[in-house]
Amino acid sequence: MEFIRRLRVPPIDDTLDAALHQKIDQKTKPLGALGQLERLAFQVARIQGSMTPTLKNPYILVFAGDHGVAKSGVSAYPQDVTWQMVHNFLQGGAAINVFARQHNISMRVIDAGVNHEFEDHPQLVKGKIGPGTANFLEQPAMSEELCEKALRLGAAQVDAIAEEGCNVLGFGEMGIGNTSSASMLMSYLLDVPLEHCVGRGTGLSDEQFEHKVKLLQQAAEKYPNLKSPIDILQTFAGFEIVAMVGGILRAAQNRMLVLIDGFIATAAYLAAYKLAPAIGEYAIFCHRSMEQGHQHMLEALKADPILKMDLRLGEGTGCALAYPLLQSSLNFFNEMASFADAGVSEKS
Ligand SMILES: Cc1cc2ncn([C@H]3O[C@H](COP(=O)(O)O)[C@@H](O)[C@H]3O)c2cc1C
Ligand SMILES: O=C(O)c1cccnc1
């Protein structure tokens, strides 16, 4: 696939590492006392190759798409909620709108494949790859051609906001049924049993959850020999998930800071990571979702999520909520006095 053949993620230069550690350790605090904030500041400064890193023009991209599998009763909500929520995002009434407004984060909604025609709106990108995916219980979700189109869609959106001066962006999603897709991706990409990957999504009852597990197990039996990340994406992903994969890859390629939300966004990240492991240095995991598979996925990635707030929403909400802590990490790094500046005695 041309998109994948052209993929080049720059490895991070370590020439500043010693100076960055020294700058952090010289701040007026016991050594290591700002914990994860110190690790975040170090990571961002390395990505930017700068002793004075900054966050510029932050964005949340919310990718939306419908899933054929939603018709098989794997979600607690009807498929129409996908387009209805896109409408809600554009009206400014969803959780992600509220948190993004609170932290001055711009938002864009990408229709990657919702089964609905939307009116024009300044925050909406009309990128529909198709009116939703095929039901993977019956046939692969999409062709290779559409998969590549979706990768390019995500990459193009990231390039567009990079041109607006953005250097930090969060990836969010909306698509009824997409925890099922994400569970399949996780099981295949990590080669772990499906039981560790399936959760209750929007809030399934015990009975509905058993039905979901049974259907997804049938799907796994149908496709025993998938190995490559692209084949796995084509078979199980949604257009919004593949567009996120393309976007995550391009953001790292552009040396932007990549903020990863919950279970579905992390599944997209996982596919991107399998395609280009160098993206690992650009990613910040914003929270640990209640969706059970997310906890296993984060462990497998050795990720250190910023928040544990019992969220299970998606939309990029974890990214928006973690953003002020990321700001705090750079503020301490750029503004805090050193022992020498402040005339404070160092460790004896
Ligand atoms: C009103 C509403 C708003 C949402 N915002 C995000 N999701 C989340 O729930 C969906 C995934 O769960 P499942 O696989 O169980 O369908 C995705 O659309 C996800 O972003 C929502 C779900 C609902 C119902
Ligand atoms: O972790 C998430 O992002 C998530 C969990 C459940 C439903 N929707 C999203």
UniProtKB/TrEMBL annotation:
<comment type="similarity">
    <text>Belongs to the CobT family.</text>
</comment>
<protein>
    <recommendedName>
        <fullName>Nicotinate-nucleotide--dimethylbenzimidazole phosphoribosyltransferase</fullName>
        <ecNumber>2.4.2.21</ecNumber>
    </recommendedName>
</protein>
<dbReference type="InterPro" id="IPR036087">
    <property type="entry name" value="Nict_dMeBzImd_PRibTrfase_sf"/>
</dbReference>
<dbReference type="InterPro" id="IPR017846">
    <property type="entry name" value="Nict_dMeBzImd_PRibTrfase_bact"/>
</dbReference>
<keyword id="KW-0328">Glycosyltransferase</keyword>
<comment type="function">
    <text>Catalyzes the synthesis of alpha-ribazole-5'-phosphate from nicotinate mononucleotide (NAMN) and 5,6-dimethylbenzimidazole (DMB).</text>
</comment>
<comment type="pathway">
    <text>Nucleoside biosynthesis; alpha-ribazole biosynthesis; alpha-ribazole from 5,6-dimethylbenzimidazole: step 1/2.</text>
</comment>
<dbReference type="GO" id="GO:0009236">
    <property type="term" value="P:cobalamin biosynthetic process"/>
</dbReference>
<dbReference type="InterPro" id="IPR023195">
    <property type="entry name" value="Nict_dMeBzImd_PRibTrfase_N"/>
</dbReference>
<dbReference type="GO" id="GO:0008939">
    <property type="term" value="F:nicotinate-nucleotide-dimethylbenzimidazole phosphoribosyltransferase activity"/>
</dbReference>
<keyword id="KW-0808">Transferase</keyword>
<dbReference type="Pfam" id="PF02277">
    <property type="entry name" value="DBI_PRT"/>
</dbReference>
<keyword id="KW-0169">Cobalamin biosynthesis</keyword>
<dbReference type="InterPro" id="IPR003200">
    <property type="entry name" value="Nict_dMeBzImd_PRibTrfase"/>
</dbReference>
<feature type="active site" description="Proton acceptor">
    <location>
        <position position="315"/>
    </location>
</feature>
